[in-house]
Design brief:
Helices cover 22% and strands 31% of the residues. It has 1 helix and 11 strands; from the N terminus they run H-E-E-E-E-E-E-E-E-E-E-E. The mean pLDDT is 89.
């Protein structure tokens, strides 16, 4: 490779690099969306047993309450709970999950999403649900 062609190639590479320094932040700013969440509140009286409300399943565990999203990770259908078998079933494509949200069968490939739980001063619990 001759010096002249090397310098031309280096100049082009530097130009693309500098352009990327400006284009990437501009695209990131233009395409950025704020994460939207909604809060689902459970009273402290509801923490003794499994409670299902507003697409959230709150289950008491020895380490504190655990919240699961009741949206199927496959196509976001709302799951139905079968208390006799302690499983969640997707009505759209029959994916099945156990009571802890672990995948048992179906076209879904991941477990149910665990949601952040915040215990309040009065004993109630708030769960952050992505919208």
């Amino acid at each position: 490779m001759k010096r002249r062609s090397f310098l031309a190639l280096a100049r082009k590479g530097l130009a693309w690099f500098v352009a990327g320094l400006f284009v990437y932040p501009a695209l990131r700013f233009a395409l950025w969306r704020e994460k939207k969440i909604r809060l689902v509140r459970f009273a402290h009286q509801e923490l003794s047993a499994r409670t299902i409300r507003d697409e959230v399943c709150l289950t008491p565990t020895p380490r504190g309450p655990m919240a699961l999203s009741l949206r199927c990770p496959h196509l976001c259908c709302v799951l139905a709970y079968d208390p006799s078998a302690d499983i969640f079933v997707c009505p759209c494509h029959r994916s099945r999950f156990n009571g802890q949200g672990e995948l048992l069968a179906g076209p879904a490939t991941t477990d149910l999403a665990r949601l952040p739980v915040k215990e309040l001063d009065n004993g109630d619990v708030e769960v952050e649900v992505p919208v």
